[in-house]
Amino acid sequence: MSTSPYFLTLYVFSALFLPTSANNLVQLNPCRSYCGNITLDYPFSLRYGCGHPGFRDIMFCINDVLMFHVSSGSYRVMEIDYAYQSLTLHEPHLSTCDTIILGSKGNGFAVEQWRSPYFNPTADNVFMLIGCSPQSPLFEGFPQKHLPCRNVSGMGCEEYYDCPAWSLLGGHRRVGSSWLRSGPPECCAVSFEAIKSINLTKLECEGYSSAYGLAPLRVDGASGWSYGIRVKYSVQGNDEFCRACEATGGNCGYGSDGVRQLCMCGDFNSTSNCDKVSSGSSRSWQGVGRIVAGILVCSLSWI
């Protein structure tokens, strides 16, 4: 039995090139993840080894609900804005204009120290702490005229007091201009930058609310605020490694140590990018394997 040169050439090309092409089609972006209607791209991922190492073990998909987990607790992710590098979070014990939740049940917001360079609430995010004790660390070292309480991006307690939820709370103070005689104000608005951690237990507060601004949109009154926690994320530096990786067709990830960045190039990983293969890479050996496979296929066909 003989085989024409045409079919012999076809077999060789099939053995050498089709496996590579199929692999590239399947792994166009193996690190992209989905949870409900939210897409997770770099620096986030649901898959271990994908994304930025500083963002590992932080996102979880539970029944199509995306959850963000840090030291202060778990939050539902409402939105990921990749253009502005921000997350919008919500948790069930967050007070709003319609409901005030007391009992120190809320998560507040705090991240592990090693994650702090990566995540911080945005500058226009105001935290309004409710029902804090006179002995709260929030008021330590602040004389009457220099309270830490202040408006943040035009949002603060004076407007928040006008919310209907306050009328449902009996016996709660609203103003505290003479707080040294009557106790601290019932609501104290602060920026995250001012105290670095919103921990209701440590601050001895009964509850909290959080709202953020969406510039250039400005609304009048707390009833029109956007309630939730708006977190700015940063991958630190200019992230040249990932840009070089993606420019050569790779996907950004990290090694088994959870620290070292890797460029995933389909059938091999690189410590630089997909155009620069280290001596230890498996790509060359896989290329040899394809050549051998091609020769074997041709030989069997010839026989």
Overview of the molecule:
This protein has 303 residues and is of the alpha+beta class. The chain is built from seven helices and 15 strands. It has helices at 5-26, 157-160, 179-182, 192-195, 200-203, 240-247, 283-302, and strands at 33-35, 38-40, 59-62, 65-70, 73-81, 86-90, 119-121, 125-130, 187-191, 207-212, 226-227, 229-233, 251-254, 261-264, 269-270. The chain has a six-stranded antiparallel sheet with strand order 3-4-5-6-12-7, with no helix packed on it. Strands 9-8-10-11 form a four-stranded antiparallel sheet. A hairpin with a 2-residue loop joins strand 1 (33-35) and strand 2. Helix 1 packs antiparallel against helix 7. It is elongated and about 65 Å long. Residues 31-89 form the Wall-associated receptor kinase galacturonan-binding domain. GO terms for molecular function: polysaccharide binding. Keywords: Signal. It is found in: Membrane.
The backbone outline, from C-alpha atoms, is elongated
Strand content: 15-25%
Discrete helix count: 7
**Main sheet attributes: strand count, strand direction, barrel closure:** 6 strands, antiparallel
Output the helix-strand order. HEEEEEEEEHHEHHEEEHEEEH
Membrane topology: Single-pass membrane protein
GO molecular function: polysaccharide binding
InterPro entries: WAK_GUB
Domain Wall-associated receptor kinase galacturonan-binding: 31-89
